[in-house]
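Structure (tokenized):
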């Protein structure tokens, strides 16, 4: 009887290892592939091809890498399955935030280049060039991402898309106050006329003043951010310092149910306090 039970358990284990687990991994792979394809389609004209490929690969491998890392680094066997699940869930979320981080950096870089692009276009207008020719001058003289973005506008216009629609898509890819003024000035000048070089120079002056104000705000909020870093690091530093000198000091917190509960509450309050300090010391984009 015992032999039959062990044999059935062995068959069940083989079934799990060779049938169920590969099936689950295949479904996860298909799901991640769909997420990566949706991301690539959504970011087709927003990010460069190399960044899209990088994030798409991140979508594919991040859940497995984070899950395996949590499983390997878990301190005890009883925590390995929860650590695996937590790591896997974290790997599902991280690519989205990584893509948002890349997109934010790209838009910030474009925001610093918009002044030079407007100056090139204003000079081109004074030299007698048309709007499309002035954009071509930006493509020839500016680095990415400004070159890439203006190149997309020109490419769409050559493919038959109206300039108004192409500029509207441009603003959706790079939303900012400067871009709103830039697109509005061009659209209004095409309908009612106007001195675009003078308008661009006023936009440049406005953008420069805006950057000065943002820089002052960053300096004023730097103290709050440093306070957030210091206050958030103190509990962790205290734990490692005391634990290195007296390993028994936190034994009750780590080995008893009540200690683990209090430790979990402390971690949640620590995260909440850190989030609130960072939120208070961060200003929204104007």
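Design, position by position:
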């Amino acid at each position: 009887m015992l032999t039959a039970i062990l044999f059935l358990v062995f068959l069940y284990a083989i079934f799990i290892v060779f049938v169920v687990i590969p099936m689950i991994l295949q479904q996860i792979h298909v799901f991640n592939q769909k997420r990566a394809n949706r991301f690539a389609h959504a970011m087709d004209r927003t990010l460069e091809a190399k960044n899209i490929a990088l994030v798409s690969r991140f979508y594919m491998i991040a859940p497995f890498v984070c899950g395996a890392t949590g499983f390997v680094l878990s301190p005890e066997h009883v925590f390995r399955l929860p650590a695996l699940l937590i790591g896997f869930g974290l790997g599902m979320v991280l690519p989205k935030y990584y893509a948002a981080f890349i997109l934010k950096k790209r838009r910030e870089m474009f925001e610093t280049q918009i002044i030079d692009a407007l100056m090139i276009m204003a000079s081109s207008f004074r030299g007698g060039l048309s709007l499309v020719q002035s954009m071509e001058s930006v493509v020839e003289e500016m680095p990415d991402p400004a070159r890439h973005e203006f190149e997309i506008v020109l490419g769409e216009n050559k493919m038959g898309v109206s300039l108004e629609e192409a500029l509207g898509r441009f603003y959706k890819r790079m939303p900012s106050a400067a871009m709103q003024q830039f697109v509005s000035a061009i659209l209004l000048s095409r309908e009612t006329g106007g001195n675009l070089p003078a308008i661009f120079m006023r936009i440049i002056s406005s953008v420069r003043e805006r950057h000065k104000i943002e820089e002052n705000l960053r300096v004023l909020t730097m103290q709050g951010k440093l306070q957030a870093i210091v206050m958030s690091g103190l509990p962790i530093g205290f734990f490692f310092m005391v634990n290195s000198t007296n390993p028994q000091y936190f034994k009750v917190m780590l080995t008893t149910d009540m200690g683990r509960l209090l430790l979990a509450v402390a971690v949640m309050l620590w995260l909440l306090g850190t989030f609130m300090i960072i939120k208070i010391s961060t200003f929204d984009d104007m």
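Reviewer-requested clarification: The chain has three domains: 17-107, 112-205, 214-280. The chain is about 85% helix and 0% strand.
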